[in-house]
Design goal:
It comes from Poecilia latipinna (sailfin molly). By secondary structure, the chain is mainly beta. The protein is built from 2 helices and 21 strands. Strands 1, 4, 6, 7, 9 and 10 form a 6-stranded mixed sheet that branches. A 5-stranded mixed sheet has the order 12-18-17-14-15, with no helix packed on it. The structure holds 2-acetamido-2-deoxy-beta-D-glucopyranose (4 copies). One 2-acetamido-2-deoxy-beta-D-glucopyranose binds next to β9.
Amino acid sequence: MDRARPAWFLLRLLLTAAALTESAGPLTDPERVAGRLVFYQTEGSATYLRDSGALASGVATETVFELLDPERNFSSAGFSYTWDLGNGEVIRGTEPVVRYRYSESGNYTLRLNVGGNPPQLAPAGVFAQEVQVLDAVRSIQLVAPSDYSVNRNSSLDLQLDGSPPMWVCWRFLRNCAPDPAAGCTLTLLRAASLRLNHTFGSAGLHCLDVSARNAVSALRVTFSLKVTRNDRLHLLFILSCAAVLAATFSFILAIACRPWQLNSSQVAASSNATFLKDQDSKIILNFSSVEKGERVPLILQPGSQYCC
Ligand SMILES: *[C@@H]1O[C@H](CO)[C@@H](O)[C@H](O)[C@H]1NC(C)=O
Ligand SMILES: *[C@@H]1O[C@H](CO)[C@@H](O)[C@H](O)[C@H]1NC(C)=O
Ligand SMILES: *[C@@H]1O[C@H](CO)[C@@H](O)[C@H](O)[C@H]1NC(C)=O
Ligand SMILES: *[C@@H]1O[C@H](CO)[C@@H](O)[C@H](O)[C@H]1NC(C)=O
């Protein structure tokens, strides 16, 4: 997309050798041979001018040698080009352009050997360029619990897969509502992970907006986070606590109150069944009174009354 950018910050070339010819004449004294290397990378339909000496790994790259010959002294000369990519790969050709890709990140020295053809009529030279190959930021992942609580310090770990250094800017959006006025917190990251600390002020859906960039790429990701009110947990604990206590109390009550509830009947006891002895001294096997006696009050007890 930058191919047409007018102000090219051109890569400085190191002219380490030139002028191999000795004959006289305007074409045979090329002492001031100059040129430049220009890097492009193409991804999808976009072409980027890489003018900072940094390239993205794994991306189709094209390097063009532009001979500076304003007086057109060498317009009729031919050249041969030997490209040493610095990764063990050497490519030869007669065009001032080479296409390749670096698969691994790292620092490389790209060397171009330009040979004149015929040598008497054209300049020759060796040009070298330091190239820093970086992995583009292709993913940002949130390694954290999926639930967060209000008014509690939460730690959120972000994992980024690009080459550092990366500039990371992040912000939390309450209810995921875009807030153009709010800036983001910018951090220079020299590692692949970042731990954010945040205290959510309200329950509901929140968003974490993260953008990251290094010299060759930029990526923006939004995570939605569910923030719950932690007193709900509290309430759950209280209720379960109450249930246990209520069960105990009602059991005691059931035992203690049995004689009055049954009036003159006597409780002959047992865990599951109650043997009732009525006036006529008949023994009645009664399960239901046990069930009722122990269970009904449990539900009716207001929990908070007993609780811890
Ligand atoms: C091109 O030739 C002219 C003379 O015709 C000379 O003055 C000039 O330095 C040459 N330029 C280069 C780059 O060799
Ligand atoms: C590559 O070069 C840059 C500076 O150009 C330097 O900061 C970085 O540490 C180098 N990386 C490696 C792996 O040597
Ligand atoms: C969160 O942690 C910071 C220090 O890391 C502390 O100052 C703050 O009080 C904590 N907030 C809560 C709600 O615990
Ligand atoms: C979050 O807190 C940890 C220590 O608890 C700290 O190492 C980290 O730098 C903090 N993160 C940010 C973005 O301040």
